Amino acid sequence: MKRKSVKILSAVLILLTAVIIVLWQLFLAETTSFYLVSVIILLVSMIPFMLSFEKSSPSARELALIAVLISLAVASRAVFYLVPQFKPIGAVVIASAVCLGAERGYIIGAFSAFVSNFIFGQGIWTPFQMVALGLVGFFAGVIFKKLRTNRWTLSIVGFVLTFALYGVIVDAGSVIFIADEFTWSAALAIYAAGLPFSAIFGGATVLFLFLFGEAFIKKLNRINMKYGITEDNYEK
Q: For residue 142, with 0-12 CB atoms within 10 Å meaning exposed, 13-18 middle and 19 or more buried, which class applies?
């Protein structure tokens, strides 16, 4: 069997297994684990990005650059270990996505969250953080493909993505595994409690993008252009 056929078959089997588990949990199990259902959905949602990235046949240089950016994002989070939520990891992911595009932005964001949680602790929150930070990178790549980059646009878009998008997804995880029974009042209370933390994360992203975002993007674009890694994502 050809390698491509094996990959397709594996993806179909994973998807089918996920669908069966979700349907069983929702309709046949005595007690529904909404956390299990949500995690499966989140993990399955990553598959198209992973398959698309692999299909693009990334070069060794591209893989090395992505690995370095993930390491930098992880280090940027670890440096501020003692300061809750004040982390530049969102700024690194957004700047990387500006230069390398939406798909690579998702990869860098998702793996940065996963790897950095070996320092901060893996748990039931990890899949939510992976998808949330991955989507921050993805939408940053989409937005800045059309929007000119400067410190103001980087800061505004960075705050919206990290405060609103990241906060909504990660706090949704809190709603699922903290609330004993879902009610709108309980969900609103949990989201309200999470607002200060989301605001701090968004503020840190704004600060680092405003001060260092343009310089980081210029240096990354030089590497991008020198080695011809992603020719369609140079700075406009």
A: middle
Residue 236's pLDDT band (boundaries 50, 70, 90)? very low
Greatest Cα pair distance in the chain: 59
Contact assessment for residue 135 and residue 94, using Cβ atoms and an 8 Å cutoff = no
Judge contact between 144 and 157, C-beta under 8 A: yes
Q: Which residue has the tokens 């230069």?
A: 99
C-alpha–C-alpha distance, residues 7 and 9, integer Å: 5
**Which amino acid, one-letter code, is at 211?**
L
**Which token pair is 59?**
């070069």
Q: What token pair was written down for 86?
A: 């004040």
pTM for the model stands at: 0.82
The span from the CA of 76 to the CA of 216, in Å, is: 13
**Which residue do the tokens 């690995």 mark?**
67
**pLDDT tens column, 133-144:** 999 999 999 999
Tens-digit pLDDT profile for residues 102-158:
999 999 999 999 999 999 888 778 888 998 999 999 999 999 999 999 999 999 999
Query: Which residue carries 């709603």 as its tokens?
Result: 175
Q: Which of 129, 83, 88, 85 is nearest to 109 (CA)?
A: 129
Would you say 112 and 85 are in contact if contact means Cβ atoms under 8 Å apart?
A: no
Minimal CA–CA distance to 121: which of 159, 157, 78, 91?
78
